[in-house]
Design a protein that fits this description.
The protein is α+β, with helices and mostly antiparallel strands. The chain folds into two domains: 320 residues, Alpha/alpha barrel (Glycosyltransferase), CATH 1.50.10; 205 residues, Beta-galactosidase, Chain A, domain 5 (Distorted Sandwich), CATH 2.70.98. 33% of the residues lie in helices and 25% in strands. The radius of gyration is 27 Å and the shape is globular. Helix 2 packs across helix 3.
Length: 581
């Protein structure tokens, strides 16, 4: 149970042995006062925002629970200006009422998905924290709230212990929620279900990357949940999965605190993730392992101050040991070329310059576009300081087969990496006599790009072929990308997408929608003192980026947001694109 002395704000030392499941003794260490002040002030900033919109009927139950968590953190924390502030009780009461009112009879919530155990588990984790914090605080004014919260947990947990999931990370979210429920209201059904999920094994590759390859889910779900289970169920072995994942994250970090997501199999493969989500994970593993690199990242998050850092106050009130003074800082890696075979990616960093090379799409094994698959056509990224090239993509005009997506990645030298793809498109010949039908009603089968009642598998074929090889070579002041095409003659376009905020020069404007072309010579993109030069241009013909029939049939688009510069050419042949910083 929580320590009342901490909740009143009188803490000066903490025992960090609680971070080590099964630890023989607890080490007493000083509190990181700057960290506590940061979280306290961040939470005090959140509370007025909650008070201004806590009646928002459009909020999901997960949002309702998180708003309540923010209010409770300030209410119970002795150093907060909102400590035992009675003006929080009415809004908090309304939020708690919503948590109870929206619960189905089976104990589950609708959160996009109907009667969803995993989505309910996200909310129930917060509900358990609400109850635990208020119970440790022990104020008579919150007795009714605590009773309602307890009923919500006790109604939901049996459903979590019998229900199913959709994705790999859901298993750990449900298990963490059950671990919290069992800690408050012990029940063998809860621990049995946790053991069932854990017995499936943790979905992490030897290089520390989870199967979904998503920094979003590593930061928000898998790592926090494994840490919770390790703490509440005495499972010290789970800590090593988190440690290895955070070690990978060190190499995915950009200098401005973003985390590279190119290789993800989830929705963040086309977005940006910020490292602030990882704050308490890096703190906990720094304390657990003594790794000063983790200290450096945690402190950089605190110094940057971005994100919803106030959300972490509840975790620290629940586990005071997270506020301990961290081990001495050690430099985080900033000069490397790190290869991750499990996702066919390479991360290169030379101080303020970083690059990503990616060839790990799932498209060659599972040729469909679907959630849960890596289909990102970006194969190269580059940044130097504030000048950011968010993507390089290639699209040949080849039977609407879409973007170049490499079938793997090979490291061919210390700073040289090879990507390749071979596309074959058939023309279909008459069916052999034994497969012909007098009624002409043949099976509806896939051709590769589309379906038709043509019995495609039994037809002889004539193929048109295009092979593309891309070599990415690091040079002293940037990178050279060499494109080599073999096969049929056709046109292609290379798309460079720069992040908005800078100035392009040396390029021709194609339209008013952020599209430009480098016809000849060298172009540049500049943000302040930071600059990326690129070129040479290779011709004036305009060639559209073709996302492929899988997208165009339903009006889909793969056009990235930003300032897009196009270079064009024709196959077969060779083109070298140079980037200099």
């Amino acid at each position: 149970m929580l320590r009342r002395t901490f909740l009143t704000g009188s803490l000066t030392t903490v025992a960090v042995g609680a971070l080590h499941p099964g630890a023989a003794r607890a080490e007493v260490t000083a509190v990181d006062e700057d960290f506590l002040t940061l979280l306290t002030e961040a939470n005090q900033t959140q509370i007025p925002l909650v008070l201004a919109n806590y009646r928002n009927a459009a909020d999901s139950v997960r949002t309702v629970a998180r708003k309540a968590r923010r209010l409770v953190s300030g209410y119970v924390w002795g150093r907060s200006t909102y400590h035992h502030d009675t003006s929080l009780l009415e809004p908090l009461g309304r939020l708690v009422e919503q948590l109870a009112a929206r619960q189905h009879e089976d104990g589950l919530y609708d959160v996009g998905n109907l009667h969803s155990p995993p989505d309910s588990a996200f909310a129930i984790q917060d509900v358990c924290m609400l109850y635990a914090l208020l119970d440790a605080d022990g104020q008579p004014a919150t007795a009714a709230l605590r009773a309602t919260l307890a009923s919500v947990v006790q109604k939901a947990a049996p459903a979590l212990a019998t229900g199913g999931v959709h994705t790999p990370n859901h298993r750990w979210e449900v298990s963490a929620a059950l671990a919290r429920a069992n800690h408050l209201f012990p029940d063998r059904r809860y621990t049995a279900r946790i053991d069932e999920w854990l017995d499936e094994g943790i979905d992490a590759t030897p290089d520390g990357i989870y199967s979904e390859r998503s920094s979003t889910y590593a930061a928000e779900v898998t790592n926090p949940c494994l840490l919770t289970i390790a703490w509440l169920r005495d499972r010290p072995g789970l800590l090593d999965y988190v440690r290895r994942n955070l070690d990978v994250t060190l190499y995915l970090l950009e200098p401005n605190g973003e985390v590279d997501t190119t290789a993800s199999r989830r929705q963040d493969q086309k977005g940006v993730r910020e490292v602030w989500w990882y704050l308490t994970q890096f703190r906990e593993l720094a304390l657990h392992t003594g790794d000063g690199r983790f200290t450096t990242v945690a402190k950089s998050i605190e110094a940057r101050g971005t994100g919803e850092l106030g959300d972490f106050l509840a975790e620290v009130l629940e586990r005071p040991s997270l506020s301990a003074t961290l081990p001495a800082a050690a430099p985080a890696p900033d000069d490397f070329a790190q290869h991750y075979p499990s996702q066919a990616s390479v991360r290169v960093r030379r101080g303020a310059r970083t690059a990503t090379v990616f060839g790990g799409t799932d498209f060659h094994d599972i040729p469909v576009i679907s959630s849960g698959l890596s289909t990102n056509p970006t194969f190269f990224k580059l940044r130097t300081g504030s000048a950011i090239l968010d993507s390089v993509r290639l699209s040949p005009q080849f039977f609407s087969t879409g973007h170049f997506r490499s079938d793997g990645l090979r490291r061919t030298g210390p700073g040289t990496f090879k990507l390749q793809q071979e596309v074959e498109v058939p023309y279909h010949l008459p069916l052999p006599r034994r497969y012909r039908r007098p009624d002409g009603l043949y099976a509806l089968t896939p051709e590769g790009r589309f379906y038709a009642s043509m019995d495609f598998p039994h037809r002889p074929k004539q193929y048109r072929t295009l092979r593309t090889d891309v070599t990415v070579a690091e040079v002293a002041d940037g990178f050279d990308l060499t494109f080599e095409f073999a096969g049929d003659e056709t046109a292609y376009a290379i798309e460079l997408c720069f992040r908005p905020g800078g100035t392009l020069s040396g390029v021709s404007e194609l339209d008013a929608n952020g599209n430009y072309q480098l016809v000849s010579g060298t172009g540049s993109y500049t943000v302040g003192a930071d600059r990326i030069e690129f070129g040479p241009g290779s011709g004036a013909a305009r060639v559209a980026m073709d996302p492929g029939e899988r997208y165009t049939y339903l009006g889909g688009s793969l056009t990235p947001d930003g300032l897009r510069v196009y270079l064009t050419g024709r196959t077969p042949g060779r083109q070298v694109l140079r980037f200099r910083v």
